[in-house]
Amino acid sequence: MTMKTILAPLAGAARDELTLAGAFTVAQQCEAHVDALFAKLPAAAAVPMLGEGVSGAMVEQLITAAETEWERRETDSRRAFEAAVGSFNMALHEEPPGPTTATAAWREEPGREDEVVVHAGHLSDLVVLGHRRGEDEDIQLALTLEAALFRGSRPVLLVPGVVGQRIGGVAAIAWNGSAEGARAVADAMPFLHQADAVHILTAETGKTDPAVADKLADYLAWHGVLAATRKVTPGSAAVGAALLTAAVDLGADLLVMGGYTHSRLRELILGGVTRHMLAEARLPVLLSH
To answer: Are β-strands 156-159 and 170-174 bridged in parallel, bridged antiparallel, or unpaired?
Structure first.
């Protein structure tokens, strides 16, 4: 698989800077095209349903306020896009075929971000979402992430912090033999082929067969990727925390894993590796479902 089209959803929020940095970094590694997509919800749709006792004047005020807010978000997103294009020296190009270099284009579509990303993501090789670790939970980001994974059926690269000059120089794979993990490995092949080192991490739990790591290493070897295996003992720590710590200790700048290998409801109630990564990841994480 080659990576040639990258979708970077923008929201007029602090995460836009990280989204663009992650998307442009990958684009330059793969000579790919980035669509910076701003989904603009119509003002009337952004206003909550109101009861009969609310006056027409109040409704108009709410719609005007919503229009002002969406105009601000669009302006902030455009500024972030233009700044990132200049910083990364990206070529602006809208129609294929583009030049044999990394390119970018601005797109705007009406609708809610998660719904728009699902349809746009169908024809994208990767969706990139920035998220500043430690900030208040971004509900729309969570909706967009799940929509891209479950309904868009595309891998998502979550970028939780400052991006280096490269993503995937040292790649770690959180592996338990699941179907979701297998999809993540396949989706990550462009990164794995470019990596200087690849590590397979398996948590020593009763749910993971110890032999799965060696089987994945053999599979990768057939694809020309040499990978080392490492067992992770969670002890009293959560599995997600143990895997993340191991990846950081190895100097990884990319973690590859299956997303929501358990049901979303179970992850919501009991927690899980995916939810831990969303909250605590300190390096880019490629998720597939």
So the answer is: unpaired
Catalogue the E-assigned strands of the chain. Answer: 5-10, 33-40, 91-92, 103-110, 126-130, 156-159, 170-174, 197-203, 227-232, 254-258, 285-288
Domain of 175 in residue numbering reads as: 170-288
Token pair recorded at residue 101:
């270099």
Same domain, 229 and 136: no
In this predicted structure, what is the pLDDT of residue 44? Answer: 62
User: 127, 159 in Cβ contact below 8 A?
Assistant: no
**Same-domain pairing of 12 and 101:** yes
Q: Which is nearest to 149 in space by CA: 171, 112, 172, 180?
A: 180
Domain boundary among 104, 136, 159: 159
Under 8 Å between Cβ of 123 and 5: yes
Q: What is the pLDDT of residue 265?
A: 43
Arithmetic mean of pLDDT, 216-230:
97
Question: How many structural domains are present in the chain?
Answer: 2
Task: Count how many residues are written for the chain.
Answer: 289
